[in-house]
Design goal:
about 240 residues; mainly beta; Jelly Rolls; 8-stranded antiparallel β-sheet; 5-stranded antiparallel β-sheet; 17 strands; binds magnesium ion
Length: about 240
């Protein structure tokens, strides 16, 4: 009897194995396309466009197209207050953007007046740069906020004088022929490696007063803000992406 039972179990197991054997692991392997290989030079991926690596501002211009008035010293780019924003000569749509910034060591001002600058995607949508280390302001205006639109999940700000990192993924908006937005812009932000904004759907162009509204645009420069404070930048690179399929 035991032999009979064992034989039945064996038959069952063999049958089960035959059923599963009809699918081979190879049948779900996809080999094409093969992702392009990226190498690294001082941490910068080989498919990135370097916007500032400490050696001058050839990738940048003033709003009027002139040489930027900001200062470059010891490989560091610093806002020269009242000289205006700087913008890339190149225009971008969807991007991955890496920006390192530093609040002034000498602490002056309060709230929005302390270490204020900003990174504008498509020249319109501001990821706030602010000394938010020990400086309360409205939450949707602190460091790594999407200015006046989204509060960061946490405050990952480092002390004034310490270098900080923004890694931003920006999906540019799309518009119809009449200029109405059909696909809003989306932003994800890591602040010092910490996720602070995930796939946020933007409500329109950053507005200081009133509600944000969209205005139709195509590829546009990246812009760094002069808000009157000597905020510094270094190691800025961007990867052009195409995130809408
Ligand atoms: Mg700002």
């Amino acid at each position: 009897m035991n032999t009979m039972k064992s034989a039945l179990v064996l038959v069952f197991l063999l049958a089960a194995q035959l059923t599963f054997a009809q699918t081979k692991p190879e049948e779900t392997e996809v080999w094409e396309p093969e992702p392009e290989k990226v190498t690294f030079n001082n941490g910068v991926p080989s498919d990135a466009m370097i916007l500032f690596n400490g050696e001058g501002l050839s990738a940048w211009e003033s709003e009027s197209g002139d040489t930027p008035g900001w200062t470059v010293s010891d490989g560091v780019l610093t806002v020269k207050p009242q000289t205006g924003v700087i913008q890339t000569k190149e225009k971008f749509g969807d991007v991955q953007l890496h920006v390192e910034w530093r609040s002034p060591t000498e602490i002056t001002g309060e709230g929005q007046g302390r270490g204020n600058s900003g990174v504008f995607l498509s020249g319109r949508y501001e990821v706030q740069v602010l000394d938010s280390y020990n400086n309360r302001t409205y939450s949707n205006g602190q460091a790594s906020s999407i200015y006046k639109q989204y509060i960061p999940y946490v405050n990952a700000t480092k002390a004034p004088g310490e270098w900080q990192v923004y890694d931003i993924i920006f999906v540019a908006p799309e518009f119809d022929d009449a200029g109405n937005v059909t696909e809003p812009a989306r932003i994800t932000v890591f602040h010092n490696g910490v996720l602070v904004q995930y796939d946020r759907e933007l409500k329109g162009t950053t507005a200081y007063i009133g509600q944000p509204e969209y205005e139709a645009h195509g590829d546009s420069p990246l812009v760094l803000q002069d808000h009157g404070n000597p905020v510094s930048y270094r190691n800025i690179w961007v990867r052009k992406l195409d995130l809408r399929e």
